[in-house]
Design goal:
Layout: E1 15-19, H1 27-39, H2 57-68, E2 73-78, H3 85-91, E3 102-105, H4 110-120, E4 124-126, H5 146-154, E5 160-163, E6 167-170, E7 172-182, H6 183-188, E8 201-206, H7 212-224, E9 233-236, H8 252-260, E10 267-269, E11 283-285, E12 288-293, E13 298-301
Parallel strand pairs: 1-2, 2-3, 3-4, 7-8, 8-9, 9-10
Antiparallel strand pairs: 4-11, 5-13, 6-10, 7-12, 12-13
Helix pairs in contact: 2-3, 3-4, 7-8
Length: 308
Amino acid sequence: MRALVKPPALTHGSAVSIVSTASPADPERLARGRAELARLGYSLPPVKGGSSPAPSAQQRLNELLAALQREELRAVIGARGGYGTNYLVETLDAEELIRPTILLGYSDITALQIFLWQTLGWVTFYGPMVASGFDAGADAAGGYDSASFARATTETAGGWTVDLRGESLVPGYAEGTVVGGCLTLVECSLGTPWELETGGTILLLEDRGMKLYQIDRALMHLKQAGKFGSVRAIVLGDFPECGGPEGNDQNVRDVCRRILGELGLPVVWGAPIGHTPRPMLTIPLGVRARLHASGAGQLEFLEPAVKP
């Protein structure tokens, strides 16, 4: 059993850093996101990353390590997603990371979140990024859900419940450790030394801009690789901008229901996690929760994700 490592909670005035582990961010969106974090009361030390035109993998790795090793920082937040984080985990030495820090992001950062979970047992946070969530503001379309962000990063006394605002494809109840993230990046962990272990978990899967056959192929790959064999439950995102050729009457929900429905697990579809046009939830990865797959679905966290 992996030793669980929780980071210290955010408090008013906490210092946070912005890192670009993947694609560079739009400067205007980055500025709006920084302004929102400042409005929330967090301190933003000057950083070099986030808007570089095309930083190399080594530059991005150095930036990430520098942030994670700064003792005064309470959170490291991704600038945006895109692609390229997998280059960093290939050479990242886990022994250099001796102090847990809140790592917040989604999409391509899934690769780093899986690596930190599998190698160090770090709790990380699947949620808004500076130029992709915080930039649009609290509880706004394309923005972030303020309540789940606050509970995930500040609650130290006990658990809490998140309304998933989706649809229960397969009703039921299940308890497990929450893991997962972007479907493409979860699939890409297969065969690596940090391949995501899914036994006894509530598995989150979401993505955007995929064709129906690509989603079908990815889910079947995970199934045939045994990744659904001992999963306790599955939570699916909105999967925006995903579809099939004109004239195809199937949609993503149909594909997910066909492949995942036969597993006999509770499944909730359409939660605003990761890529979503709705206010994005913040979901801690690595902590135990209970999924209530009934109606719109609820995820009940059974322990805090951060420590005092």
